[in-house]
Amino acid sequence: MTDFLERIESAREHVSPRWTAARERSLRWQLESRLERRRTTGRVLAGMALVVALIVGHLGYSQWIDGAPKGAVGQRAQTTKGARTGIGGAAAYQGAEARAASGRGERVGGAEAETQRGSALKAAVGVASVQLTDGTVAQGMSADAHLLTLEESVQRVTMRLASGRARFDVTPRAERTFRVEARNVAVTVLGTQFTVELLADGVRVGVERGRVEVEWPGERRVLGAGEEVTAGGEEATVGESSAVGGGAASAAGAANPGAQNTAAPGITPPGGGTAAAGTSVNGNSMLGSAAASKNWRSLAQEGDYAGAFAVLSQEGAGSIRQEPGDLLFAADVARLSGHPAQALPQLERVVRSYPSDSRAPLAAFTLGRILLDSLGRPREAAEAFARCRKLAPGGALSQDALAREVESWSRAGEATLARDRAIQYLRLFPGGRREKAVRYHGGLEGTQ
Amino acid sequence: MQRAHAALQVVPSVAAPHERVEVPPGEVEIPSEVVMPGEVELELQLDFDTLYRRYSPYVAAVAHRLLGQDAEVDDTVQEVFIAAVRGISQLRDPLAVKAWLARVAVRAARRKLRMRRMRSFLGLDTPAAYQAVADDRASPEQRALLARVYKVLDGIPTNQRIAWTLRFIEGEQLEAVAELCGCSLATAKRRIQAVSRLLEEAFAE
Predict the structure, then answer these.
(1) Angle at A264 between CA A262 and CA A266, to 5 degrees
(2) What residues in A contact B10, CB-CB < 8 Å?
(3) CB contact A238 to B (< 8 Å)
(4) CB contact at 8 A, A186 and A219
(5) What are the pLDDT digits (tens) for B39-76?
(6) Which among A342, A395, A334, A325 is positioned nearest to A365, based on CA atoms?
(7) What is the 3-state secondary structure of chain B?
(8) Residue A421: enclosing H or E segment and its boundaries?
(9) Which of A44, A62, A379, B59 has its Cβ near the most Cβ atoms within 10 Å?
(10) Above 0.85 for ipTM, yes or no?
(11) CA distance A186 to A179
(12) If 0-12 CB within 10 Å is exposed, 13-18 middle and 19+ buried, where does residue A65 land?
């Protein structure tokens, strides 16, 4: 290398922009504005194209509909002021004229009133879908799928599944709430792909990717990828609780899983209602009189985690022995019955009160997983994974705990911490099984 | 949960109660969610916020090194991430995000450099702040060196400049330079050598 190139080599690290957090934020805002302007321009152009298409096709379309047999396949979209649904891709509805399906003798059931204030998409034969202007797709998955867009704005999109089954592929946007209502169940999207299905005895929500929050009277739950819940069996209006007495307590417990009460952390006190009264998780049987006679440990050992959780909730945390094994068992019952938040206090107690127990690192690791994967609390998850390593520095979990700590810091937006931990991982575990993920989350792709 | 891997000398997991055993001191139960050797658990979420937060500093750095002027960096970063909104979903390998963004940044910088040369040719360019190429940590000698290098680079054809900058300022290997420039390895070498000769002549005076 020549002398000149050597001088360049020693100086090149100084060729860097003055990139501050404020500059990054400011540019992010400008970028969002620019993207929004593009979307608005796109909507305007799409609207103009729609008007032209309506003018050209109106008479012929009307004649075709009037001549079609009753009950023919066809979709009507009724738009009212302030409610609109984007057009795109596989959208199967056409036209913006107000023509209620009920006016043509078709039964729309409980959604009749909805058509007065929202756009309606009713799938007949085959699959129909609605695509919003940001790329979000709501797709009917059954012949009787009936989707309505109640509200669409920059801040909020609300849709209603009046019947059937639909799949939602939602473009994540931090500043916008995406919500799907089905009977008395509301699904709030945290960025994901999920299905909602109306059943005879409830509403089933399944998550394929990402996370959603599912809420029904007296209960609220966050589902991660691969998880599903069947809830809200009664046709009650939102706000009524089918649970007795403790509906508000269990909802509060779900919303604030770290809350302590005099009986025990995280478990609804005896006498309080639980979601089990109207809920089944992953097809497990609901609590019946026979199950009530068994204690929660027996039910869990039989694999009936939902029943075990219901009994445990009724008996209260006083029925949990204050020793690591039973605390972990109770945490497993909560977690495997679809109540991950209720597992946190037991796990934290093991880590805090029994740090020298050989199971404490496992408790910390499980705590981290719940916080990161089920509850979307990456910062706390990172601290839990760090604690796991601290409890057992050379233990069997230390490699995975460090890898997941990298991921957690990355998701918490702490790029520097993620990178530091990633470098630590690569140093401690060269060629480790998590190297690929660690490099990605730590921003070290392409480096040696 | 599944039974944990035997190679780790573990006992059955907590969630298999019919096989539950008391954990003797010194042994640890391993949940099967822990990735076993040979498996890779990789959950990638390429949402825009994560993409921007993670890679905007990198894109800004690449843009600055290619352009040599801080005033054009913000616009280049915006162009790259606007392209990312449209094109990132077509990326087959999520781990190639960084390289993809770099290629987009190179294309955006190339457009800006060509516009700059045109403005200069027409006498419409604005005076460049070459002393601002280096950051505050540079020594006066390094700052002067880099200022002079970028002044010379402004007079060099765009494709040659980009290749040389990627090689000796960004520190990329030749193969990566060729890929980022969208040219063959031989072409990349030729461009780099041409600029190296010019710079060595300029600094030999």
Answers:
(1) 115
(2) 396
(3) no
(4) no
(5) 333 334 456 777 888 889 999 999 999 999 988 999 99
(6) A395
(7) CCCCCHHHCCCCCCCCHHHCCCCCCCCCCCCCCCCCCCCCCCCCCCCHHHHHHHHHHHHHHHHHHHHCCHHHHHHHHHHHHHHHHHHHHHCCCHHHHHHHHHHHHHHHHHHHHHHHHHHHHCCCCCCCCHHHCCCCCCCHHHHHHHHHHHHHHCCCCHHHHHHHHHHHCCCCCHHHHHHHHCCCHHHHHHHHHHHHHHHHHHHHC
(8) helix A415-428
(9) B59
(10) no
(11) 7
(12) middle
**Alpha-carbon gap, residue A353 to B22, rounded angstroms:** 20
Max intra-chain CA distance, chain A: 88
- Which residue of B8, B56, B134 is in closest CB contact with A396? B8
pLDDT digits (tens, 9 = 90+) for A241-266: 333 333 333 333 333 333 333 333 33
CA distance A334 to A253: 13
Q: CA A273, A275, A280 angle in degrees (round to 5)?
A: 140
Q: How far is Cα A179 from Cα A175, in angstroms, rounded to an integer?
A: 13
Q: Strand locations in A12-155, DSSP E?
A: 119-122, 129-131, 137-140, 146-152
Render pLDDT for B74-96 as a digit per residue (tens, 0 to 9). Answer: 999 999 998 888 776 666 666 67
Q: Burial-class residue A355 by CB neighbours within 10 Å (0-12, 13-18, 19+).
A: middle
In angstroms, the CA B148 to CA A198 distance is 70
CA distance A207 to B170: 43
Query: Which residue among A5, A174, A440 sits closest to B168, beta carbon to beta carbon?
Result: A5
d(C-alpha A291, C-alpha B134), whole Å: 73
- 3-state secondary structure at position A171: coil
**What's the pTM?**
0.39
Mutate to test the interface with A, among B35, B67, B76, B166 (most CBs of A within 10 A): B35
Beta bridge partners of A167: A139, A195
Question: Long-range contact list for B118-127, CB < 8 A, 24+ apart?
Answer: B120/B154
Residues in chain A: 448
> Which alpha helices (DSSP H) does A215-323 contain, by range?
247-255, 289-292, 296-301, 305-315
CB pairs under 8 A between A and B: 162
